[in-house]
Amino acid sequence: MYKCFPNGTEALSGITVDIFSGQCLLIAGSNGSGKTLLMHMITGLIDSSGGTIRYKGEVLSHALPLIRRQVGLVFQDADAQVVGETVAEDVAFGPKNMGFSKPDIETRVNAALRAVGLDSKRDVLPHQLSGGEKRRLAVAGILAAGADLIIMDEPFANLDWPGVVQVLEIIRNQKQSGKTMILLTHELEKVYVLADRLIILHNGRIHADGSPEEVLNRLDPAWGVHDPRQAY
Ligand SMILES: Nc1ncnc2c1ncn2[C@@H]1O[C@H](COP(=O)(O)OP(=O)(O)OP(=O)(O)O)[C@@H](O)[C@H]1O
Ligand SMILES: [Mg+2]
Q1: Is residue 50 part of a domain?
Q2: Which of 37, 45, 77 to mutate to test ligand 1, by most ligand atoms within 8 A of the CB atom?
Q3: Is residue 137 domain-resident?
């Protein structure tokens, strides 16, 4: 697939990627490499300029209802994702829209808040949460809605060390429970040990795709990604 904007910017070109169920895929690339755009295209939030995107064998236009139910995207900007007046209402938004019964919604909300460690904040206003807590809130919403595929765009942005550890814990737990994960980041050092596969995006193209060790062993400095195994 590719993406060309009306101003002539060719932001993604010749992208071919298969995403396998149960895999923890890390997509790394410097600022402007196309990470956010790629995810917005895969989830149908932005149209591609050409090429084919399939989800579970179906072309994107047919698969959109399924994608909306099964794919959860944690945005780079956590504030953009707040929809409820309280933390608990925010988490309940997805299951409510999916038509679950009241007791089911309650069970799902409680389990999701516990999973991200926000159960004591259920009646707090989302805007009063810290940046890290907001990101965990977004994850809780996705868990409550029952997403199978979780995409996190810059999951560590603006987080202090305890916040990073909390998000890593969530990633580890979700991976263990068999969810498919796609993590988009330039902060490889925080998470590469959890990844099954590493893709390097640079200038809108895929430059490497393989096991983290294999890709890191042939990292090109021009790609703008630091090898997390080496000191700065
Ligand atoms: N609406 C638009 N019009 C023109 N170009 C755009 C538009 N949206 C994005 N781009 C370009 O697409 C490219 C990829 O942007 P994208 O946001 O996907 O990068 P990214 O890898 O997520 O970067 P970051 O690490 O800063 O989040 C950039 O060069 C950006 O300028
Ligand atoms: Mg981005």
Answers
A1: yes
A2: 37
A3: yes
